[in-house]
Amino acid sequence: MLSTLEKELVAYAESFYTDDEQLNRNLRLKLAHTFRVRNETTALAAAEAFPPEQARLAVRAALLHDLSRFEQFSRFRSFNDAESFDHGDRSAELAVSRRCLDDLTQPEQDDVLAAIRVHNKVAVPPGLTLRAGKLARAVRDADKLDILPILIGYLKDPENKSIVFGLDSTPELSPVVRDTMLRGECPRHRDMRTVCDFVSCKLLWAHDLNFNWSRDEFRKRGYLESIRSFLPDTPLIRQIYDNARNALQPQP
Q1: pTM of this structure
Q2: pLDDT digits over 181-194, tens only?
Q3: Residue 172 gets which letter from DSSP?
């Protein structure tokens, strides 16, 4: 049974539906993603023994982390932040304006909003409270765990190009992305030119998982192997893949 907030979220998403089925399809994609990220966050919090208050706030942040995606795709027909707006920042703004956090204390609101803002950033920035940082890391992990099956499904049946931001299907890395990955860094979305760029960068996600449960799930679900199967067999890709496998080992 859906909570009041979950019902409001569904109604908000559906308010953007039109007679354009391609638009509606992408909005439904993000709505389903939101609820799966909620589920992943719930499982993570239980496995990692979050205190009940932290688990509750983590799930709240998960439900609201992509709140702006419906407006984004409706206005721009794209999920690419570089072509529209930063969806983490905008989702936090909407969470406030739509009064989705009014039942929380001010410190709780601040920490949930911080987690929403930074869930899509290259890294969790310094300066967050300990609780906000933990919430952000939980949502970031849960988000990754759900995005990858969507991407893998697209690669098996490349029909909805919105999933890969409409990037070129050329099966090679573009020079900027290749050079960035050679330095061991994660390329920025605005530098990606090909689907190969987009997919290869997901191997680097193994280095940005924050909890042992997340690393274990990433490994058990075979995400690395699935991603690797769609990439060219080059020394760089092999090295990135081997490094990613090592990163998925349990950490103290």
Answers
A1: 0.90
A2: 777 677 887 888 88
A3: S
